[in-house]
Amino acid sequence: MKKRWQNIFFVFGVAAVVLMLLTFDADWNRVREVLSDAGIWFPVIVLLWGLIYLMNACSFGLIINDGTSRRVPFGKVFQLTVSGYALNYVTPLGLMGGEPYRILELSGFVGGRKASSAVILYSMMHICSHFCFWLSAVVLYVVLHFCVGSKYVLNAWMCVMLGVMSVVFVLVLWFFSLGYRHGFVVKVFGLLSRIPLVKKWAAGYLDKHRAELEEVDSQIAFLHTQRKAPFWWSLFLEYAARVVSCLEYWLLIGMLMPGFSFWDSILVMAFSSLFSNLIFFSPMQMGGYEGGMALAAGGIQVPGAYGLYTALVARLRQIVWTVIGIIMMKTGRKHD
User: From 51's CA, which of 59, 149, 153, 261 has a CA 20 to 30 Å away?
Assistant: First the structure.
């Protein structure tokens, strides 16, 4: 990436972090109390997310280094993973900062078209893993209801909600499978060209760059059809990262509530992340993250205060890794 663009992304990230801290929706005395209560578990959780980002980077690396272009060093892949997520966390609408940054950085190694297809495919893999995780959480909830009993309520309203969620998740995963087999970028721009306000821009971009977009689609399909083992390993690592992240909630809520199991943490993580992702337009999902945690915890008879406490600790952990990611933008290996 040209130094000018790198500086632009870095300045944007720093400004966003400063604004986020100035508008942080918690009293700093409360923050000190929460960190004091968390004790040694807060640095443990920060290190845990280092492992999670390492798993994300391994997944990303399997997509980038497919043998068709220059190999990208793993250190660079890890830096792009952490910095990309940091930019996404502080960007309204999500995926509006991290993905362009990753493409521009990777272009110097593998070229613009390969960089675009790799980043798009990894984003698809990351999103797909969320839907796989949410669907498995629905199944887990039903299984636990029949195996454990009344702790997991399964009344008529809950059955309808879980049923609708299951249908939606299965349909989304089916659309993802079509995109993996045939590509989807050209189709997305074709759809956008029919939507008011953006149709003129989308149609013009599609006409001008159709060949490049078709090549991106072909490279997306290549991984699924010709490199099946790396494809499934990449998806598995992303899914496993979601499961490992549940340890955060298990450690924090379990410290306050001894009967809280790892299965409970999976359900809290799944339904709180689903709720917070529904308001993806908010930087760092402000408000929705905490609300989702409280609702999800209450849904399995965990006191809402525990959910809010855990959400605040998780928010502080997220801020730490956001700052680390922004700093890594200037310390990572450069390639122009």
Answer: 261
